[in-house]
Amino acid sequence: MNIEYYKELKNSPQSYWLASTHATDYPELSEDIRVDVAIVGGGMAGILCAYLLQQDNIDIAVIDAGKIMNGTTSHTTAKITSQHSLIYDKIKNKMGFELAKQYADANEHAILQIKDIIDKHQIDCDYTPQSAFAYTQDDKNVEKIENEVKAASELGIKASFIEEIPFPISIKAGVMFDNQAQFHPRKFLLPLVDVITEAGVKIYENSRIVELNENDGITLYTEQGKKITANKVVIATRYPFYNKQSMYYSRIYAERSYIIAISAKEKYPGGMYINIEEPTRSLRGCDSKEGQLILIGGENHKTGQGTDMSKHYCNLVDYAASLFTIEDIKYRWSSQDCMTVDSIPYVGYYNSDTSNILIATGFQKWGMTNSMASAQILRDLIVEGSSPCQDVYNPSRKNVLGASKTFIKENFDVAKHLISGKIASIPKNVKIQPGEGKVLEHDGERTGAYRDENGNLFLVNTTCTHLGCELNWNCAEKSWDCPCHGSRFSYTGSIIDGPSVDPLVADKNVNIFERVIKEDF
Ligand code: FES
What distance in angstroms lies between residue 462's CA and the mean position of ligand 1's atoms? Predict the structure, then answer.
């Protein structure tokens, strides 16, 4: 098949992890409840946290805005690895050996802990031991690889220097970690959800939390107005919806990346690979009922920024074709990750003044081991009051790892988009074809318009309901995306990704939320 055929992206985005497992169906919260611990967010971190806490006979509710495990957990590459690109030499130099050792131990332990859980509950989740590789194609980065091998080895990780990988890619150097693994994240978590619900954990879906109050204990309110009273709350919502006095919105930014799952004539040689330069390219194999799939990921960019999002998939197709003879592109999907300004997740007490609100966010692109590590830290803090690896993840830590520069850059970027979105000129006479979305002027206001395949036009106010930045159209996912903190909305205005907790609303002139009209503008 001609490569251009695949770049037409005929199939809709769909994650293989979702397509190959059953959907969950837990009830919406329909009454006020009281629990010991409320976990907001039913992704991998939230479910694993509930799994560990229920072993201590704690009364727990997991509350999700949509379906549990439907966010990043179902859109990952699912590499269980302590190799987070190049991180250990950086942490060791900037934070010291002790904190670097904590990060290495937390993630190495997470690999073993996931395997223990799989063995204990005999979970069939396509778990396969693999080695992980990070490589450079640039001579000037060889020293960084050498330093990473040295630092990781000193920290107790089985790391070695390599000079080639089994692909037609000319590399200058690479670092290989042994004793890593890959799996199917939903096949791993769905049985665990059965385990925790049988143990009494309550799960509520489609119950978005829109308000958190700190009084005696914590009260949470769902968008349907139901109240949850809890002694402690864990916020595990990828991007925190609560920001009081902690400036998370200035310390976290959202990135999107893309994955295609291809079948190819060649057999995948094994291993999990990632380069250290831009554009990022990630590779892993995956046995499925449809035969062997090869997952090719990359093309990171800040959410809501850029023009033609479909080009990211096309770039991955070109890259796949340079390595394999593509027989089919079975699936394609995108993911959203939270990045911190110093590259280390925030896990622990929400801020230094509270021990009742805890948080786990900012896993970068390494959510499998960081979710497990987070769950352990949160469980330890709640049950024991301390955890061996809490310091390196401490959300109240000072900015390190060159974070000040990133902090300034990211906040300047938010300010720039906040202003530029307001002053950009908006076209008036616009034709919108079926399947197209555009920003246009309607009754003097900036308005987002999308026409579906039946010719119906959907109009939304494009001002983000979080902090007011102007949304941009994402043609690859048919969504309105915010360039400031990464909220995303469907073309009808409903929330896909937070931190926003309110759907897009009409303003005084665009009083036609979800209105369907037939004319062009
Ligand atoms: Fe913060 Fe849109 S997500 S302004």
Answer: 11
Model pLDDT for residues 489-512, shown as the tens digit of each residue: 999 999 999 899 999 975 444 434
Q: Is the CB of 466 under 6 A from ligand 1?
A: yes
φ and ψ at 110, to 5 degrees?
-60, -40
Instruction: Tell me the best of 485, 489, 495, 501 to mutate to test the pocket of ligand 1, counting ligand atoms within 8 Å of each CB and taking the most.
Output: 485
pTM score > 0.85 for this model? yes
192 lines ligand 1 (CB under 6 A): no
Tell me the pLDDT tens digit for each residue of 14-46.
Answer: 999 999 999 999 999 999 999 999 999 999 999
CA dist 243 and 84 (Å) reads: 27
Q: Pocket of ligand 1, candidates 467, 470, 481: which has the most ligand atoms within 8 Å of its Cβ, to mutate?
A: 467
How far does residue 487's CA lie from ligand 1's centre (Å)?
A: 6
pLDDT digits 0-9 by tens, 413-442: 665 665 565 556 666 677 888 989 999 888
Largest CA distance in the chain: 66
User: Ligand 1 centre and the CA of 134: distance in Å?
Assistant: 33
> What tokens were used for 141?
């980065």
Mean of the pLDDT values across residues 179-195?
98
Domains, the chain: 423-520 (2.102.10.10)
State in Å: Cα 96 to ligand 1 middle: 35
Is 483 near ligand 1, meaning CB less than 6 Å away? no
54, burial (CB in 10 Å: exposed 0-12, middle 13-18, buried 19+): buried
Helix ranges restricted to H, 96-214: 97-121, 142-154, 185-198
Q: How many CA atoms lie within 13 A of 187 on its CB side?
A: 16
**φ and ψ of 89, to 5 deg:** -65, -35
Residues 418/410, Cβ–Cβ less than 8 Å = no
Torsion sign, CA atoms 265, 268, 272, 275? negative
